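Action item from last week, closing it out:
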Amino acid sequence: MTSDLTESMLYTHFGTTSPCWRLAADSDALQLSAEDGPTMFAIGLTPEQARKIRSFNGVTTHTTIDIELFGEQQRLNLIGKRIDVTAWAGTASDYSDTQSVARDLAHGLAFAEQVVSEVNSLVVVIDHNSNIKRFNRLCEEVTGLREEDVVGRNAHAFMPTNEQAVSRAHINQFFENASAYEVERTINTLKGPRNILWRNKFVQSGSGPEERYLVCSGTDVTEERRAQARLLELANVDTLTGLPNRHAIHEKIKTALRSGKRFGVLFLDLDNFKKVNDHYGHVTGDNLIQSVARLIKSCLREDDTAARLGGDEFLILLEDNSLTAVEAIAQRILDRLKNPINLGLISVYTGCSIGIALCPENGETLDDLIRSADTAMYVAKDAGKRTYRVFSSEMNSKVAQYMWLDTNLRKALDEQQLELYYQPKLCLKTGEVRGVEALVRWNSPERGRIPPLEFIPYAEESGLIVPLGKWVLQTAAAQASLWQSQGLDIRVAVNLSARQLCDSTIVKDFSDALRTAGQLQCMIDLELTESCLIEDEGLAHGVIEQFRELGAEVHLDDFGTGYSSLSQLARLPLDVIKLDRSFISSINENRTSQALVRSMVAVAQELQFKVVAEGVETEAEAQFLNTIGVDYAQGYLYGRPMPVAEFESWFSMRKEVRLVA
């Protein structure tokens, strides 16, 4: 039958040259009908024909079937797709009616084209030569490029040069394997580089073995990656200084350890950061840390890394196997920190202590190296600060001692292991007991008597001197009140360190101690060393004035061994100067010592300060001091530091002797 006859037959029976067809999932009968009309004809299909139609998916597809239609054999083109889970449908045309076939295909494919163009995903189709065949609308929006300008161009032209070769190799490989894959690529666009995550799948057009295409479905992950590059930065960078943080430097040291090369680690801690932070506030403290970070970085070489661990601690990785070079950098940092650091309207002096550890000599693991450098740093602090030390195995015992002190000195405060001893001060002219100096002693249940020279420096360094000093004030005030109630007019002098003087609660602690002890008249005096005056004279002056307003006398201890100037002495509201025992011990034989003591006494008298001589052990020393005008003496000639009961017994005997005399 000719095409015209078939078309006339289809048109005659269905009113169209392209009637609608439908195939249900539960029947092999092909239903034919006019457009949007009821079923007018049903044709039984062979199982193979029904299987072919049911292989259609959601994309418009085409197949050909031979059927008997109105008593005659006919070949029909079926164009359609699966419309739901129960049915397939489309349009039928005569096999030779190419115009109707093309029209129906175009109509069906137009929807698929619209989906590809408007889908909420970047879609690029490329051939086996990596040339672009499709470039959907979202691609145009993301890149700023038009499809008509990119079709036919090579996809690799839109990638950074360093990624092109790898991408080309991957695409060639996957065209050979014909397997789906996922990859992230950087794409150069008119809006700048974008990170695209591509999920790629191969399709074949059916026109031949060479007509295979790679369909690339992409998601723009640029902002997500930036949020991640940012999170990674936050995880590895100290936000205050911009230096690597603890995690970052640890990873860098681990990498250096894996390399097998020798290198050095510096552990750096500022020496007076807490004082600056407490006195000027946290903003100034932060500014100081930032300035120190820049200074440290300026002292390093290109391959070295400085990191901030937190607070005022820094860790430095030196990629060098020479101890000489490592020490030179440590010294360079120390020298730079000798100069004042300008922080707006103020300038502050800071220094640092540095511990050095070398790999592999001082440790072959991260923990061992940092522990060694940290230990050496503490030894540097103990050596007077503002210096460096290279780790040695002997230092471990020092650290063990510090750890023991840290635990047990705190326990001593809580468990009443401390007590005050009292050493008398006598008037040289009358022999009268003028007062006593309170000296703390520690009786450890574990180690017995712990010398003050062992635990006081540690208390200073660790900050425990503040609660320790508070306990001393309270105990001394209570004892002075008790003596006063017994009719003993004995003043008690308490030592204050520079660390205590800078503590913001020191005056309140002193006032509270007097009030708790019930002292109507202050019987507590305070002894300061010259170091208290050097670091912040203005602060010292203000605190001394407050102490004196509360009724305390203020004594300058160890006079002559520090760095205070005469002009500074004239400015400070002091009451007493204590001559250091180093001048007294050689006063009988050494004319220079005699001249120095005479001069210091003369200065004190001009400034209207009383003078106390420490370390007096012989009558000859006492006689000389009396002749040159020294007011009071303290030393083994009169009495050693004694517990309360022993001092009270000594005092009673002394009083009886004087009465008899």
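Closing note: The mean pLDDT is 85.
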